[in-house]
Design a protein that fits this description.
Cytidine Deaminase, domain 2, alpha/beta, single chain
């Protein structure tokens, strides 16, 4: 499935009107279903529907399940594949089969059945429910030079194929202390891009990500901090602004948060010593 879709627009510039072809970021629903329970009594249940850009759907599902505290290791997964029985939802339903010993606390998973592409925490009853999932404060010797942060926006932008065509898609990038990009994932939803990134790292047994930072192409809400905290990330950098609750959570998590990372400048909101002067 393509990340972009063709369209025709009427472009107005001053008094000039021109019809021309254009490209849009694709947005489609993805239903995540779980297969679970003992071998003699396997069950299937729909967990969530999220609006996403197709691509890396298995990573998205695994990242979502990990950051929700449902799975903890790749060994918890038997299989993860698209369902093909329903032709009307071809490519938009993915089923994750869990090992029989994996238990699910459904009462804790109090979320709405539909999360929009802009909100990863829709339906959460309290912020306390989020904190209950996370490990303790991130402890690591990871640190970087300011020049690494200054270079990240352009470095990541060069890898964003879908953004180059549409201008309407987010990116999440994993980088090391030297600024090398190890993974980049794109999606119309900020939290989906991060889930895809974390899911890819999860499947490669890289977690916890104590020796890496994550760069985000948009603003930083608390749901992105929560996901990064679950993955053990010590430094979160973003082009946009953080929310007050995001800053509060990074302080609790001992995560360095850099915002407005662009144009050779940035603000540090928590744990500034990881960025060496």
């Amino acid at each position: 499935m393509s990340l972009v879709a063709p369209t025709t627009v009427r472009n107005v510039s001053g008094q000039t009107v021109i019809e021309k072809p254009d490209l849009l970021a694709v947005e489609e629903p993805l239903e995540i279903r779980l297969g679970f329970g003992p071998i003699a009594d396997r069950q299937q249940r729909s967990l969530a529907v999220t609006m996403r850009t197709p691509g890396h759907d298995a990573e998205l599902a695994m990242g979502f399940l990990f950051t929700e505290g449902i799975i903890h290791s790749p060994n918890d997964i038997v299989s993860c594949r698209h369902c093909v029985q329903d032709v009307n939802k071809e490519g938009n339903v993915i089923r994750v089969e869990l090992q029989p010993e994996v238990t699910i606390d459904w009462s804790r998973l109090e979320r709405s059945t539909m999360a929009s592409a802009s909100c990863g925490l829709c339906g959460k009853t309290t912020i306390d429910a989020i904190r209950a999932l996370t490990p303790g404060p991130v402890e690591t010797d990871f640190s970087i030079e300011p020049s690494i942060l200054h270079a990240l926006p352009d470095h990541v932008r060069e890898t964003q194929r879908a953004y180059a065509y549409t201008g309407g898609i987010h990116a999440a990038a994993l980088f090391d202390a030297q600024g090398k990009l190890l993974l980049v994932r794109e999606d119309i939803g900020r939290h989906n891009a991060l889930d895809k990134l974390i899911g890819a790292a999860f499947w490669q047994n890289w977690l916890p990500l104590h020796q890496y930072g994550i760069f985000l192409s948009g603003r930083v809400g608390v749901e992105l901090v929560q996901k990064s905290w679950m993955a053990g990330v010590p430094l979160l950098a973003a082009v946009g602004a953080p929310s007050s609750l995001a800053v509060q959570m990074t302080q609790e998590a001992n995560i360095t948060l850099a915002g407005f990372v662009r144009d050779e400048r940035f603000n540090l909101y928590s744990q500034p010593d990881r960025v060496r002067n």
